């Protein structure tokens, strides 16, 4: 029986990358009738320093974004990670399953720790083990994510397989990453070789879900491009990362393929394409940001949704943790 789990870190505002690469897909999976759990992974966020008030705000804002984008707290289980203690409990077991060598190869750790690895938190190093626990504590089978999470999901599979093998059980499922569509890697608007990210120092590099219409239009107008006209097929975008990015964003926002977009805009200049893309982005994003703003006015209601979601999540997680403890040899009396 399929079960979907995914999560987003409340480590800042949400970007167009989070929306197109993750949340939009979350909604599609919910609407296809599969059981879905979507988390705000606050324990992951604190692997780098977070101001407590900002962490609370960002956690609620993701919940508001989930709902504004079409997740329904009745149909999907929405909750923040720290309210379901089983995540951290299973992560400890996985700390004892995963190998240092596996974690040493994680590119996200290398990027985030930078040159000063000695000064990175232990949590940042063990981050992928907690992520595996998030998924496997629900025996989730499918995990929708953007391209950047692929390596972490491979590690999740390795952990599940090693646990099963070490204890001679067939207990944890080998999870399928779901990395599909035209927006699995939305790039920076300033640099076609860097991912659009909430942590990029330049706000012009990204579109935030909370940006107003003028800001969105300005950022798209100023997005870096080359001087050529658009090609009429995707193959023509191969050496043009900035152009490809804008075409992919357009495709994802309008639920078309990149080739369909180019069939319409091939031969046209960016001076025509960009205003159209700006209008499209404003049209799709402004209902989301205004709904988010409304929802954020009642944080009591958001916190209630998170608490209720956590109760439902725990119902699934608690028996799986108990079985794990039994397999490992922990006495429960
Ligand atoms: P995070 O918080 O960095 O990003 C959340 C989701 O958004 C996707 N994403 C993007 N997709 C396309 N283009 C982009 N520029 C872009 N930027 C972000 C990410 O791929 C992700 O799907 N480790 C995870 C959070 C996590 C998690 C989990 C995910 C913790 N436990 C369990 C799935 C399952 C992370 O840092 O995502």
TrEMBL record:
GO-annotated cellular components? cytosol
| Keyword set includes Nucleus | no
What positions does the record give for the motif labelled 'KMSKS' region? Answer: 195-199
Q: Which reaction does it catalyse?
A: tRNA(Trp) + L-tryptophan + ATP = L-tryptophyl-tRNA(Trp) + AMP + diphosphate + H(+)
Q: Which domain of life is it from?
A: Bacteria
What CDD domains does the record point to?
TrpRS_core
Annotated EC = 6.1.1.2
Which HAMAP family would you find in this protein's record?
Trp_tRNA_synth_B (MF_00140_B)
UniProt-annotated binding residues for L-tryptophan: 134
For the motif 'HIGH' region, what are the positions?
10-18
Coiled-coil regions in this chain?
A: none
UniProt protein name: Tryptophan--tRNA ligase
Similarity comment: family membership: Belongs to the class-I aminoacyl-tRNA synthetase family.
Q: Provide the alphabetized UniProt keywords.
A: Aminoacyl-tRNA synthetase, ATP-binding, Cytoplasm, Ligase, Nucleotide-binding, Protein biosynthesis
- What's one GO BP annotation on this UniProt entry? tryptophanyl-tRNA aminoacylation
Task: Output the PANTHER family linked to this UniProt entry.
Answer: TRYPTOPHAN--TRNA LIGASE, MITOCHONDRIAL
User: Where is ATP annotated to bind?
Assistant: 9-11, 17-18, 146-148, 186, 195-199
Subunit comment? Homodimer.
Q: Name one GO molecular function term.
A: ATP binding
Q: What is the lineage of its organism?
A: Bacteria, Pseudomonadati, Pseudomonadota, Alphaproteobacteria, Rhodobacterales
Q: Can you say where in the cell this protein is located?
A: Cytoplasm
What top-tier enzyme class does this entry carry?
ligase
Function recorded in the entry = Catalyzes the attachment of tryptophan to tRNA(Trp).
Major location category of this protein = cytoplasm
Q: Which organism was this protein described from? A: Brevirhabdus pacifica
